[in-house]
Specification:
Helix content is about 30%, strand content about 25%. With about 750 residues, the protein is an alpha/beta fold. The strands form seven sheets. A seven-stranded parallel β-sheet has the order 11-12-10-13-14-9-15, with helices on both faces. Strands 16-26-25-17-24-23 form a six-stranded parallel β-sheet, with helices on both faces. Helix 13 links the parallel strand 13 and strand 14. Helix 2 packs across helix 3, helix 2 crosses helix 13 and helix 20 packs antiparallel against helix 21. The chain is globular. The structure holds adenosine-5'-diphosphate and zinc ion (ZN). The site of adenosine-5'-diphosphate has 15 residues, from helix 10. The site of zinc ion has 8 residues, from loops.
Length: about 750
């Protein structure tokens, strides 16, 4: 299987040119639904020269020979006389995937243990497959042989106008266009077709208008010396015409984006394209604007686009019509014909990982694509993932550093506020400590702006009866409900289950139910009460539901109308507002104690990133971090802006337990509505996994099954099994061996998450 797959596309040129009588052209097809394994079909002579890998075809499947759509992934000539079914017809006129992209999808299928057909459907946007924004219509042409016949015919004036119009066109025209040009209905054109003068052909055409992107406006910045060194490293990599990965570790505000822009200018100058991947394009409108202002033809891909928009961008990119593609994770699949560089900004972000199948990480897919296309990959972050950092240690990646902010602006001073002391002396009540209150007063009086981060939405995050101790929980998930003041509802943050907030205990009818725990709504109320003279705005997924609300909120903050911005991690990243002189982290510990081996890393990243939102202007800035764990290594390193210190402390712990980056990991989650049934199936998988690993003589760990940290979700009980070991391919093989012939009981489902980031 392995050897065969590797030779998939090393097809000799034009096998159909060889005229051996027994020779047949064989297409290997992958079905996107139904059977997962590839099937060989004979290509009938009429399709020779038309069919190519990456196209969709229709082919008979099963006993009934039902015609089903499939992807042609390979063409080869074969001498064997084994009878094969025949490909029926082509769906696409052109290939949807280049040979390189087909190989990438094949790699993803193997690496993420996802059926190849499903990977392809995830890579080619549905709008492209459905040809959204195009319509099928009759195209009319005047064939050459018609001219001879026309000499002997008498045409009406309308017919003459139609013929004249078509005679002047090289390509067929949509019928409505011909009718408009001739000033008639489609009737006379159809008459001409019946007489055999003009010909019809069904074709698709773009029925939605092209939006144009604004022209580039010059805004050239001279790079400082650190930036120049970073650019030199990338330029060297570009010149080498070979793949290499560069990790750019630059503190917040060090000018990383500016380096990307200069590097891309190099790439574009040579007529090649660049892909820039960002965590969430709609959260960073500033990034989009910066690229648009530097490069004329930028395609932006994001999740809020219509199918038709996405299809148009895709086609424009495939036709080499854009120089730069900026987008979220799926933009890694942009069909750039001559890719020169991939940049992945904020490479540590979770959002690069897709949480539905195929569960790919755009960072790792970008690496694979850059390798295959022999181009550099640039990863950038102020807080690199330990996975990437470790690869600079081993020499796989090249490290370049931007240790200073632009114009030598100092990094903000970070001070911890020990909440243990605060809560002991009970002088301050509420979410804002005395120290934070004083800091905010001073910053606001001096004309500055304040950002307050709290990574929990809602009003009260804990609803409990003091009489009987009952905690209000979601009936479908093992999760406490959060009180939201809007509509006075108790809401499950996992499945959106809602009930009116109870005034008395549903269990013991006690009338004084407690609403505790701090969410952004309550924080906002407290800020409004304490700082009534200043406008405050809250940004979280509850307030940012409407399209455009994000840009409106950020522009109100930029204009200085809003002085205090309260929000979840949504406001922690990427924003560049010079007038922010104070950042308050209301509770740095929210992620610190989660059952996730990356909990410390996440905390370090979040605090460092939000701290980076201040001190970006001439006024400087300060950060106050409220925490119950001021001595935790992650918090201490964030206070010192010291990534190397954090990494040095954390890596040995990862190594000890063979966690990434020192081992590969696969997480299996089994879920089902009946707890014992799901548990038993998880047990069965774990037993088989252990046996498979033993048989292969592998030293790997199988943890579990155990109830997942979120033990129940949307009515399903969840169990997890964790596989860890040095050799990722061997782990995947063990999962295949253990599960290939295994059928889950009814209503039980299971998934394998390779290189997981979500451990809940
Ligand atoms: P990062 O991506 O590292 O957070 P940015 O590239 O966004 O940093 O740069 C931060 C700010 O500094 C931006 O406003 C940018 O325009 C500005 N900047 C970056 N490099 C330079 C430079 N060489 N000269 C002047 N301003 C710069
Ligand atoms: Zn729920």
């Amino acid at each position: 299987m392995k050897a065969e797959q590797q030779s998939l596309f090393e097809m000799n040129p034009a096998p159909w040119d060889q005229d051996d009588a027994r020779e047949q052209l064989v297409a290997t097809l992958i079905f996107s639904r139904g059977p997962q394994q590839p099937f060989d079909y004979r290509v009938p002579d009429r399709l020779r020269g038309e069919i190519s890998p990456g196209q969709r075809v229709r082919a008979p499947l099963g006993k009934s020979d039902r015609l089903v759509t499939a992807y042609c992934v390979r063409l080869a000539s074969s001498m064997s006389g084994a009878p094969l079914k025949e490909v029926d017809s082509l769906v696409d006129r052109q290939s949807l995937l280049s040979p390189a992209m087909l190989r990438l999808t094949e790699w993803m299928a193997e690496h993420y243990m996802c059926p190849w057909g499903q990977v392809i459907e995830a890579v080619v946007p549905s709008g492209v497959r459905a040809q959204a924004g195009t319509r099928q219509t009759q195209f009319v042409s005047l064939p050459n042989r018609a001219h001879a016949r026309l000499v002997h015919m008498k045409l009406t004036p309308t017919q003459q106008r139609i013929v004249d119009y078509l005679a002047g066109r090289a390509a067929p025209s949509p019928i409505v266009q011909v009718a408009r040009a001739a000033g008639c209905t489609v009737g006379p054109i159809q008459t001409l077709q019946k007489k055999g003068i003009v010909e019809f052909e069904l074709r698709r055409f773009d029925s939605s208008p092209i939006e144009d992107s604004p022209a580039a406006t010059e805004a050239h910045l001279e790079l400082n010396s650190d930036q120049r060194l970073a650019l030199d490293a990338i330029a060297t990599a570009l010149d080498s015409r070979a793949h290499s990965t560069i990790l750019m570790h630059g503190v917040t505000g060090s000018g990383k984006t500016e380096v990307y822009i200069h590097a891309i200018q190099e790439v574009v100058r040579f007529g090649r394209q660049a892909i820039v991947l960002v965590p969430e394009i709609s959260l960073t409108p500033q990034t989009e604007a910066r690229f648009r202002s530097r490069f004329g033809n930028v395609a932006v891909l994001h999740s809020h686009q219509t199918d038709a928009q996405r299809r148009r961008h895709w086609e424009q990119i495939a036709a080499a019509g854009v120089s730069v593609v900026v987008g979220a994770r799926s933009a890694v699949f942009a069909p750039t014909p001559n890719l020169g560089l991939i940049v992945l900004d904020e490479e540590h972000e979770n959002t690069f990982k897709q949480d539905t199948a195929p569960r790919y990480n755009a960072r790792d897919v970008a690496l694979e694509r850059a390798r295959a296309e022999a181009i550099p990959l640039v990863l950038g972050s102020a807080t690199p993932s330990l996975e990437s950092w470790q690869r600079t240690v081993t020499g796989e990646y090249r490290l370049v550093s931007l240790p200073r902010r632009v114009f030598d602006r100092p990094l903000p001073q970070v001070i911890t506020v020990d909440l243990r002391v605060e809560s002991r002396d009970r002088r301050s009540r509420g979410a804002i400590s005395r120290q934070l209150q004083l800091g905010m007063d001073a910053a606001l009086k001096a004309g500055g702006q304040v950002i307050l981060l709290l990574n929990r939405r809602g009003y009260s995050t804990h609803i409990q009866c003091p009489g009987c101790g009952l905690v209000m929980r979601c009936p479908h998930c093992a999760i406490g409900l959060t009180h939201h003041v809007h509509g006075d509802q108790a809401i499950c943050h996992y499945c959106d289950y809602q009930v009116p907030a109870p005034t008395e205990c549903p269990e013991c009818q006690f009338a004084g139910i407690h609403y505790r725990g701090l969410g952004t709504q309550r924080l906002e109320a407290e800020v409004r009460a304490r700082f009534s003279g200043y406008r405050c705005l809250r940004m979280d997924t509850d307030t940012m539901k409407k399209p455009g609300s994000h840009e409106r909120a950020l522009s109100a903050f930029r204009d200085g109308e809003v002085r205090i911005l309260v929000g979840t991690q949504m406001i922690a990243k990427g924003l560049d507002f010079p007038n922010v002189t104070l950042v308050g982290v209301v509770n740095a510990d929210t992620a610190l104690h989660l059952p996730d081996f990356r909990a410390a890393e996440r905390t370090f990243q979040l605090v460092t990133q939000v701290a980076g939102r201040t001190g970006r202007g001439e006024k400087g800035g300060r950060v106050l971090v409220q925490t119950f764990s001021p001595d935790h290594p992650a918090i201490m390193a964030a206070v010192r802006h010291d990534f190397a210190m954090f990494a040095a402390g954390e890596l040995p712990a990862r190594k000890k337990y063979e966690y990434p980056p020192f081992g590969s990991m696969i997480r299996l989650v089994v879920r089902g509505p009946a707890e014992p049934v799901a548990a038993e199936f998880a047990n069965q998988i774990a037993t088989r996994l252990r046996a498979a690993l033993d048989k292969a003589g592998l030293h790997s760990r199988v943890l579990g099954p155990a109830p997942a940290p979120i033990a129940k979700l949307r009515g399903n009980f969840r169990f997890q099994i964790q596989l860890q070991g040095g050799d990722g391919a061997a782990l995947r093989q063990a999962v295949r061996d253990a599960t290939d012939t295994l059928k889950p009981p009814e209503l039980v489902q299971w998934i394998a998450d390779v290189d997981p980031v979500d451990m809940l």
